[in-house]
C-alpha cells in the first residue's frame, strides 16, 4: 500500500482541515514527518489507521476521534487516497459525532450509518 494523499478535518489535534500530499513528498524518495512534541505527527498516523481500519492504534479508553479544538459546526472526517498493485483507491470516513441543532443550542448525535463510522470506498484515477 502506497499512500497518495490524506485529508482530515476536526480530527485529533487538528481543529481545521489538513491535507498531506504524499505523492509530492515521495517524488524525492524518502521523507520524514518531523516536528516538536505536540505538533500533531502521531495524529497523521492515527488518521491513516482510522481511514483504513475504522480504529485507532494502541489502547484508547474511548474511540472519540473528534478534535476537542474544533468548532461545533465543523464535521469530523478523514479521507485517504492510496495505491495497491497500481490501482488507486479512496476511502472516506465520517464518524458518529455530536452536532448542534439547527434551531437551538443543545446537541444531537449525528449518526453516519449503523456502526461508529460510515466508510465510502471507491477506485479513483490519479
Structure in words:
This protein has 126 residues and is mainly beta. It has a single domain, classed as P-loop containing nucleotide triphosphate hydrolases (Rossmann fold, 3-Layer(aba) Sandwich), CATH 3.40.50.300. It has a 5-stranded antiparallel sheet with strand order 2-1-3-4-7. Strands 5-6 form a two-stranded antiparallel sheet.
Write a brief structural summary.
The chain has 126 residues and is mostly beta strands. 14% of the residues lie in helices and 40% in strands.
E-strand count: 7
Low-confidence stretches: 113-117
Described by strand count, sense and barrel closure, the largest sheet is: 5 strands, antiparallel
Radius of gyration from the CA trace? 15 Å
Give the ordered list of helices and strands: EEHHEEEEE
What name does CATH use for the topology? Rossmann fold
Indicate how many domains the architecture comprises. Answer: 1
What would the average pLDDT be, to the nearest integer? 84
CATH-level-4 superfamily name: P-loop containing nucleotide triphosphate hydrolases
Shape: globular
In whole angstroms, how far apart are the ends?
15 Å
How much helix, percentage-wise, in residues?
10-25%
Strand content is 35-45%
Number of helices: 2
Structural class: mainly beta
SSE diagram, text form:
Elements lengths: L1 E10 L2 E8 H5 L14 H13 L23 E8 L2 E9 L1 E4 L6 E4 L6 E8 L2
Descriptors:
two-stranded antiparallel ribbon; mainly beta; Rossmann fold
Amino acid at each position: 500500500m502506497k499512500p497518495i494523499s490524506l485529508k482530515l478535518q476536526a480530527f485529533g489535534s487538528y481543529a481545521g482541515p489538513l491535507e498531506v500530499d504524499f505523492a509530492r513528498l515521495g517524488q524525492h524518495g524518502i521523507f520524514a514527518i518531523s516536528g516538536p512534541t505536540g505538533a500533531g505527527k502521531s495524529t497523521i498516523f492515527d488518521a491513516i489507521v482510522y481511514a483504513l481500519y475504522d480504529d485507532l492504534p494502541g489502547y484508547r479508553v474511548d474511540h472519540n476521534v473528534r478534535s476537542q479544538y474544533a468548532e461545533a459546526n465543523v464535521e469530523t472526517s478523514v479521507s485517504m487516497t492510496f495505491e495497491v498493485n497500481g490501482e488507486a483507491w479512496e476511502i472516506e470516513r465520517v464518524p458518529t459525532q455530536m452536532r448542534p441543532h439547527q434551531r437551538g443550542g443543545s446537541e444531537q448525535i449525528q449518526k453516519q450509518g449503523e456502526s461508529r463510522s460510515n466508510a465510502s470506498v471507491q477506485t479513483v484515477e490519479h
